[in-house]
């Protein structure tokens, strides 16, 4: 694979865990209001149980969330 | 930082040396070690105050050093030999007590799964749950004092591993460490956030200020990071240690934050914990899959060390946690007398 530009976003689906988002992505809420990212790489909740949604807080581990194989 | 008060013959001999300029001799270690072996060699090395404090002091020469101590002591052959002997005893104790990892295939997802399984939240008593629901103001101060030994230099021991890695595991470690160090904003460095927490609780935020109050197990939990970080042969273990550390952080930090809020602390004081809920949910994925998992694929012979490093992290955290909870349930302090 040849390199992509550093700005290009990647979204990695972590097994039984969050979506790991790297690169130039703007997060917005349902109204289109920007959601501030506190770090360059963010983890987005996939299990629905995070108390800090849309970000992951590790709750998937406490509820035994399993992603389909 | 000031030199700590010695707790036995090892520390006393070392302190005597360090206040002088380095001597051009390498018999220093022999004098010190002979005195040590005569006394404390039969105790549990993980709970041996003299051993752990002396090791912490020797490691501190590689980090920030001490006021009034010549920086040249860092690479003095006699002190390195002394450190080697103490590390041998420490390692023997770890090998004996830390549960040996099960055989695991050296591929990314298998290693990451094994690490997540080892670190899965358990139902047993935990310091985090206690702080969240029960701890009083004095107990949460004690908790911060224990944590301060590592957290006021958070991330530093794992940084030693960066030049020892290459490719994907190296990029993963740098990605995590960059975030630990504030992503270019010094005020967002995790050690700086923790310093603010300490100030908010009325404690001194100077590195090493409370070392004389801390028991051997608290020092052992930090010393194991320096041991794994400073030796290239332990590069697998330092990667596994970081993965386990990150994997056991998000959920407990939410509870710590809740405990501090329950006791009326402000948002500045709880910021450290709240930051870690979000940050370590990211870091645990990177450390488990891209650092530890990719390192296992690069160097399959390190799988055992990766998992051992994780197991050592969990074992020592458990020892510290048990010390805190046992002290508090007995109605006593978890700290040494001032």
Could you walk me through the main structural features you see in this protein, from its secondary elements to its overall organization?
Chain A: One of its GO terms (molecular function) is 2 iron, 2 sulfur cluster binding. Chain A: Keywords: 2Fe-2S, Iron, Iron-sulfur, Metal-binding. Chain A: It comes from Cellulomonas xylanilytica. The complex is a heterodimer of chains A (69) and B (338). Chain A is mainly beta. Chain A has one domain. Chain A contains one helix and three strands, in the order E-E-E-H. Chain A has one helix spanning 59-63; strands at residues 10-13, 19-22, 42-44. In chain A, strands 1-2-3 form a three-stranded antiparallel beta sheet, with no helix packed on it. By secondary structure, chain B is an all-alpha fold. Chain B has two domains: 9-97, no CATH class; 108-329, Heme Oxygenase, Chain A. Chain B is built from 15 helices and no strands. Chain B is globular, with a radius of gyration of 20 Å. The chains are: A mainly beta (69), B mainly alpha (338). At the A-B interface, helix 1 of A face helix 5, helix 9, helix 13 and helix 14 of B.
């Amino acid at each position: 694979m040849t390199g992509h530009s550093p700005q290009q976003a990647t979204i990695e689906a972590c097994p039984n865990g969050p979506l790991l988002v790297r690169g130039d992505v703007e997060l917005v809420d349902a109204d289109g209001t920007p959601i501030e990212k506190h770090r360059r790489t963010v983890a987005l909740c996939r299990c629905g149980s995070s108390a800090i949604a849309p970000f992951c807080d590790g709750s998937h581990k406490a509820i035994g969330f399993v992603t389909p194989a | 930082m000031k030199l700590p008060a010695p707790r036995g013959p090892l520390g006393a001999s070392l302190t005597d040396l360090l206040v002088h300029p380095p001597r051009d001799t390498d018999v220093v270690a022999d004098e010190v070690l002979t005195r040590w072996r005569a006394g404390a060699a039969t105790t549990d090395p993980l709970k041996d105050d003299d051993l752990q404090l002396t090791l912490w002091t020797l490691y501190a020469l590689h980090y920030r050093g001490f006021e009034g101590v010549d920086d040249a002591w860092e690479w003095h052959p006699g002190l390195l030999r002394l450190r080697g002997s103490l590390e041998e005893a420490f390692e023997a104790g770890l090998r004996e007590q830390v549960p040996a990892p099960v055989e695991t295939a050296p591929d990314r997802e298998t290693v990451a799964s094994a690490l997540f399984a080892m670190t899965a939240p358990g139902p047993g008593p935990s310091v985090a749950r206690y702080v969240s629901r029960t701890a009083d103001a004095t107990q949460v101060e004690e908790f911060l004092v224990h944590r301060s030994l590592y957290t006021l230099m958070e991330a530093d021991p794992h940084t030693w591993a960066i030049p020892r890695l290459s490719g994907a595991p190296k990029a993963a470690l740098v990605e995590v460490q960059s975030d630990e160090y504030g992503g270019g904003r010094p005020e967002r460095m995790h050690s700086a956030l923790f310093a603010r927490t300490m100030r908010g609780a009325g404690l001194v935020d100077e590195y090493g200020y409370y070392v004389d109050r801390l028991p051997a197990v608290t020092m052992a939990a930090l010393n194991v990071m320096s041991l794994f970080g400073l030796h290239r042969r332990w590069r697998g273990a330092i990667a596994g240690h970081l993965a386990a550390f990150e994997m056991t952080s998000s959920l407990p930090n939410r509870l710590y934050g809740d405990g501090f809020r329950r006791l009326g602390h402000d948002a500045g004081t709880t910021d450290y914990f709240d930051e870690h809920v979000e940050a370590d949910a990211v870091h645990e994925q990177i450390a488990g899959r891209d650092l530890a998992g990719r390192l296992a694929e690069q160097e399959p012979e390190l799988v055992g060390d990766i998992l051992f490093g994780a197991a050592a992290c969990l074992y020592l955290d458990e020892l510290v946690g048990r010390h805190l909870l046992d002290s508090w349930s007995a109605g006593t302090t978890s700290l040494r007398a001032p």
